[in-house]
Amino acid sequence: MKNKKLDSTPIRQEAKGRWLSILGTLCPDIEKQLSKPGKAGSCPVHGGKDGFRLFRDADSTGGGICNTCGAKPDGFALLMWMNGWDFPTTLEAVANTLGYQSAINRKPVQLRSVPVKQKVISKPTITDDWIKKMLKATWGNSFPWYSSSAGLLRHYLQQRGLDIKELHRRMPLRFHPSLECRDSDGQFLGKYPAMLALMYGPDGKASAIHRTFLNYKGQKAPVESPKMLTPHASDRPVTGGAIRLGIPGSSLGLSEGIETALAVIQVTRTMVWPTYSCTLLEKFIPPAGVNHLVVWSDRDTNKAGQNAAYALKARLELEGIQVTIMEPPGIDMDWLDVLNQFGPSVFPAIPESTPLLGLTG
Fold first, then answer.
1. How far apart are CA 328 and CA 342, in angstroms?
2. Could you tell me if residue 131 is inside a domain?
3. Residue 105: pLDDT above 50?
4. DSSP 123
5. 114 lies in which domain range?
6. The domain spanning residue 62 has which CATH number?
7. How many domains, the chain?
8. What distance in Å separates the CA atoms of residue 31 and residue 41, rounded to the nearest whole number?
9. Are residues 107 and 153 in the same domain?
10. φ and ψ at 114, to 5 degrees?
11. Is residue 154 domain-shared with residue 115, that is, in the same domain?
């Protein structure tokens, strides 16, 4: 059976009068022109100071003009030119931004790298000041996970097996529509949508951003490591910290991955913080007031997850903190796998569980 294709007609109709919002989500580089349609600014493809402007009726049409490449009569043509996409990719991106669930029914598309200025593609010089500015800009150009602009992120979470109706509206996850993706050597791989979460150090200060890069199918992006932490400044360590999804009581859950934590929160209604990796899980330092940790361990073939959990338990129990380890019933599983394969009934009871008391903003 062939996958159902998107019908462009209703999407075009729905986009009319909403193009500034759509372009703001998919083309954050033209923020200046979006604020003043008709006024020229830097071209997102060629650079310069005044090589590109949106038409005055851009909210209705989505059109604009480049002094070098000429006019783009509507938002679809503009997105195809600006981001290097074909029409099916563009239609799917607009549909997802508008919240069309039918966008998931097409075959995955191969995204092409976004044509950007060389100064963006070149490897940046990493300094503490650069890191802090980058973190502020990345977070500031993103949207809350529940906003109308973050439909692709919600679809990703649903595809992972989570019930987004069970996730609190103020869960501190955000969506970035077009974020630079670089490999471990700093080489530019392209721009992709991304789920964002703040990584806090043991002192409670935000130190880095966890990014899950996506494609426009609502799946992990086709890069070697779609989940990565940004660099952190020298005075903002991540070791000992975690991604703080909410406010704990005297008891706190701990996991490696974000989706694993969300699965446990969904089923048990207790607060769980992801630590990003088994290495950071082993080195976690509980905040003041927490005297009981429930570690929702991964069960890896190489036992890395279990070993980290038991090393954490041995260290913290010497400090008087109780640690309970929950291992999945099968090999090479995490608790999201358990939810998807066996359902919530397999999750163990937690006699001393703490309900969701609040969420960080």
1. 11
2. yes
3. no
4. P
5. 8-119
6. 3.90.580
7. 3
8. 9
9. no
10. -70, 130
11. no
Q: How would you label 42-54 residue by residue, b for 16+ Cβ within 10 Å and e otherwise?
A: bbbbeeeeebbbb
CB 91 within 8 A of CB 62: no
Closest residue by Cα to residue 297 from 260, 263, 267: 260
Tell me whether residue 92 is in a domain: yes
Domain co-membership, 138 together with 213: yes
At 7 the pLDDT is 82
* Burial class (CB within 10 angstroms; exposed 0-12, middle 13-18, buried 19+) of 4: exposed
Q: Lowest-confidence range among 39-48, 242-251, 287-296, 298-307?
A: 39-48
Do 113 and 131 lie in a common domain?
no
Q: Is 359 a domain residue?
A: no
Point out the domain boundary residue: 83, 100, 119.
Answer: 119
Q: Residues 133, 47: one domain?
A: no
What b-and-e string marks burial along 238-253, b requiring 16 or more CB atoms within 10 Å of the CB? beebbbbbbebbebbb
Please give the model's pTM, rounded to 2 decimal places. Answer: 0.69
Given 96, 119, 142, the domain boundary residue is 119
Non-local (6+) Cβ contacts of 337 within 8 A are: 328, 330
Of 337, 334, 342, give the one whose Cα is nearest residue 306.
Answer: 334
The token pair at 111 is 């995204």
Please, what sign has the CA dihedral across residues 49, 52, 56, 57? negative
User: Tokens standing for 270?
Assistant: 């207790």
**What's the pLDDT tens digit per position in 214-258?**
988 888 998 889 999 999 988 999 999 999 999 888 999 999 999
